[in-house]
Amino acid sequence: MRAESLKKLYVESRLDELFEIRIEQDYPERNFSAIRLKQNAFRLRAFELWENNAGHFFRIYHGDVPSAIKAELESYSFHTRSAKHYSDFVGDESVIFKYFYDLFSSDTTKEIANQNKVYTRNSAYEGLALPDVDTSDADVLGTEFTWKEIIAISEDDSPDNELKKALSQAGVYLQRSSDGTSRYVGSAYSCGGILSRWLKHLNSNGDAKHLNLYVLENGYNNLIFTVLEFTDDNSALKAESRWKQTLGTKNTGPYDGVRLNRN
């Protein structure tokens, strides 16, 4: 019922016209439901409905939103409290969600977001605007990452970057085309783990001949990075061989654009 109520407010307020939904989740053990969003210019991550002994309240969970937008949220009459990554609201639910729509659909707010993009600190990618990534979530198995997200995760040195800690482990990973047709399996078992290996791939794919050809032909924007399995350093290569067999990524012949493991 809680999740349905949140979705109804989200749709009726027309927020669905502004933000794409990544996933809808309910957390009965914590008494809240969430509509988690795909990346957006405002760096919003979720709209949430929480229940407590006093009733219920709404939360916008966000990344580092521009200070002007954060100040506007905190000045709203139904705002109750804020922390670094959230703002809470209590009151007439339809009025609150209409306010959310009016705020994030306004040209002024859009311009503020556009003027406050976060750029990489790495000179190798100078001028690159980085996406907002929720680094507090360390549940990475099955999660897809783009090359820009990998850089953003790497450059976030905050102590609560659980995602960076998880990806710094040894293990086996998959680099595949966005449609899943082309596949490359690799492993990482040294300092920095999978994240370090992915960063190296952004500079050079080394001896991965067919992966190199794929990138030359299609570019990194068509590549998805994902973790298949975490291992210890000693078992990473064995696990890599098993995954290559399972996913059929090995190719001993000429480049075919599909099976990219031809080292």
Architecture overview:
It is a single chain. The protein has helices spanning 2-12, 67-75, 93-105, 107-115, 147-155, 162-167, 193-203, 209-218, 236-247; strands at residues 21-27, 32-37, 44-52, 55-62, 79-83, 86-89, 118-119, 129-130, 171-177, 183-188, 223-230. Strand 3 and strand 4 form a beta hairpin. The protein is α+β, with helices and mostly antiparallel strands and 263 residues long. Helix 5 (147-155) packs across helix 7. The strands form three sheets. The chain has a six-stranded antiparallel β-sheet, with helices on one face. The protein folds into two domains: 2-115, Transcription regulator MotA, C-terminal domain (Aspartate Aminotransferase, domain 1), CATH 3.90.1150.20; 123-247, GIY-YIG endonuclease (3-Layer(aba) Sandwich), CATH 3.40.1440.
Keywords summarizing the entry:
263 residues, alpha+beta, Aspartate Aminotransferase, domain 1, GIY-YIG endonuclease, 2 domains, 6-stranded antiparallel beta sheet, 3-stranded antiparallel beta sheet
Q: Indicate the proportion of strand residues.
A: 15-25%
Elements, N to C (H/E): HEEEEHEEHHEEHHEEHHEH
Which structural category do the helix and sheet elements fall into? alpha+beta
- Structural domain count: 2
Q: Give the termini distance in whole angstroms.
A: 53 Å
Q: Helix proportion of residues, in percent?
A: 25-40%
CATH evolutionary superfamily of the largest domain: GIY-YIG endonuclease
Using the CA coordinates, give the radius of gyration.
21 Å
Strand numbers in spatial order across the main sheet: 1-2-3-4-6-5
The total strand number stands at: 11
